[in-house]
Write a structure and sequence with these properties.
heterodimer, A: 459 residues, mainly alpha, MetI-like fold, 2 domains, two-stranded antiparallel sheet, 1% strand, B: 429 residues, 3-stranded antiparallel beta sheet, 3 strands, 65% helix, extended, disordered N terminus
Amino acid sequence: MLGYLFLTIIALSLVAYYVGALSGKKFAAACGSEVHSLPSYHGAFVAIWVGVPALILVLLWSAFQGGVIDSLIYSSLPAALTDGLSEAQRNLTLSEIHNVATGQIFAEPAPEITLAAERLNRWETTVRIAVFVATLAVMMLGFFFAHSKLAPRFRARNGVETALSVFMVFCSVIAILTTVGIVVSLVYEAWAFFALVPPSEFFFGLRWEPQIAIRPDQIAGAGAFGAVPVFVGTLVISTIAMCVAIPIGLYTAIYLVEYASDRVRQIVKPLMEILAGVPTVVYGFFAVLTVAPAIRNAGGLVGVGVSPNSALAAGLVMGIMIIPFVSSLSDDALRAVPRSMRDGSLAMGATRAETMNRVLLPAALPGIMGGVLLALSRAIGETMIVVMAAGLIASMNVNPLESVTTVTVQIVSLLIGDTAFDSPKTLAAFALGLVLFVVTLMLNVVALTIVRRYREQYE
Amino acid sequence: MTDAAATASPHYSSSEAAAAKRRRRYAADARLRGYGIAAISLALGLLGVLITTLVVGGYPAFTQTMVRVDFPISTENVDPADPAAGNFRRVMSAGVSELLPGAESPAEVRAITSILTNNTQFILRNAVVEDPSVIGGTLALKVPASDPFDQLNKGLINRDTPEDVRRLNDQQIAWFDSLREQGRISTPFNWGLFTNSDSRFPEVAGLAGAIVGSAYALMVCFLISFPVGIAAAIYLEEFAPKNRATDVIEVNINNLAAVPSIVFGLLGLAVFIQIFGLPRSAPIVGGMVLSLMTLPTIIIVTRNAIKAVPPSIREAAYGVGASKHQVTLHHVLPLALPGILTGTIIGLAQALGETAPLLLIGMNAFITSPPGGVFEASTALPTQIFIWADSPERGFVSRTSAAILVLLGFLIIMNGIAVFLRQRLERTW
């Protein structure tokens, strides 16, 4: 249905374009250089008036149709059926009507439901026809309006360019809308969560047991939403990752900047980019299948018990994933140090190691710090490796051989499967998401500021 | 300075000490160089280990053990008028009981049937419905062997392990060997990996649904992020006035590029599914979420490509009377297009490998047929890898590696196209 509407709109817009362009050509033939706009602009002007209003109409209709019809159907049900129904029961009744309407009948429905379903089908057909007619009418109106304006001195190009500018501004604003959408949805759901669980418990509580009681008298069914163990686990795994990534990444950058020949650089840099381009789900599988058993076996050899989903395995693999970030950002920072400083040091007889340690590294330190912070924000927000390789149980420990859980693991495990938007379990995921968003955003802002300041210093 | 030099010179006259100091300094230099080489070899070595494990683990899944069975299709079991309603379980038993002479009891026939995949009767039904002329005759069909026997054939089950800890007992291995002696076992290329959809049984599980789902999601992602990204980039680079609002948009785009992907999944769940009421697990929601993630990449790449077009082009176009829009659309954009395309393909390749947001919007469901449209429930390649990695059956381990190799193959192709475009089309001024 929607597809046919879009096709109709596109087809009629094309027709409008040709009609408009034809008028433009007639003007050009009749008046020569008196004409303001090229024929194609006359065409585009008419096409925009035909297509855009119709498109907006259809999009608005598809966004609101479902809700309006549902509430109409519901209010048409006999009062005996709807009295004192809760929100959830209302939705249940409506979905039953929808199922009956599409022919998915599981048990003999009540006669009122069957009637409502028939009404629903009838109304939907009516609405479909109505929308089709309305769209066609809007397109006709647009066409006559735009076509009547066409004239040799008509500024069709200006009209088209204004429309294009509006479209471009709208597209730029989408980036803002995305951020606003993220913030609003996270804050809204987190707000609902904090109405159920006090923030003091969430930020300072030491027990994280997000299960919900099915029966009221269930043992340990109340659930506990103290997120400190989750934060600690995230820190443990990120720290391990940074301990792997910073030395390897930094020494790689130092070698590439100071020692490597051009040929080595040309080979090593793309290979490091491959390391950065491997999807994280692949790293996760690698951690589970290869690294975790290897660590377990190594632990067994020296007589240390290692948990099957130890923090060490997840952290190590996450460190491997982050190496390219650290190395390429450090590489940029080291290269941004003015050549005169480096040459001056070498000219005084310093070795390359001395130049690196006493001149280049101190000068590039802010840039490298910025890169490390960006990498840290990446590690905290990384999901798939920890979902596959880290644990699910939140425990307060910093032993890398034990299993810990992270913020992202908890978000995924709370939201996977069916989700109801009124249980604290689901809402807790959004509260964790909000914390994650705020922390990574702060890290990014600080890192980008440091990098920018530092760059300005040498420009 | 001269004073310092004068006091320093006697120090260096003792060449012994100077040489020792020089040696130490050169040793420090060599050490730093050594650390660098060690770091690079470690990083690349880990990459090598990663690729090697995947290839070694995944290549067995690119072949599949098949068993040729002659099924007698009697009119008694299958009605020629309505072949789809036939009793294919009995047809299967009839075929199996002829495989190994001497196996007569129903229990033994059942045990031998377990050599074939659990889906055998459906494969049989499809084959008969497709070609009803075999009814009344015999149908020779190559059926995939079930997972344990597939592993046995590929040498992944060690025959020397004691029987009680082995997944197959001696009798089962003997049956399989006798089938091999009859020449009924073959190990062709596993086309099923690409033509089948997901299944509970590893031997018939394939990636068709995931590939189609990923293709739909990427299509939606491209259709949204490509035009919107280019329009936003053109506006910011060529038209936007330099004021606070523009600054906010720019900072915003840079920050969006660094927001963790799972947060975009939360956005998709709360807005697209909860508020807009779009269906769960559908590629359209996945594509929309991915497009929001790809948008910053495309905007940044497009702006750089537009910046690289020299001002002389713009000035020449202004000089012959073009309007600002005409300059941008007719001259700057076409010249920047190769760079934009390169960046877009790289952005889409990133989107193809993205998993976490798709998990949150439910694209990790168990779905046994490819989606028929963008509104139908589906999986995607990375989420299929995640599902298989979580499956307990042994056969899924090699399937997961194989699926990863397929995903990496797609990524390599996309990046290869991007590199090709960059080298062939991009102009330096």
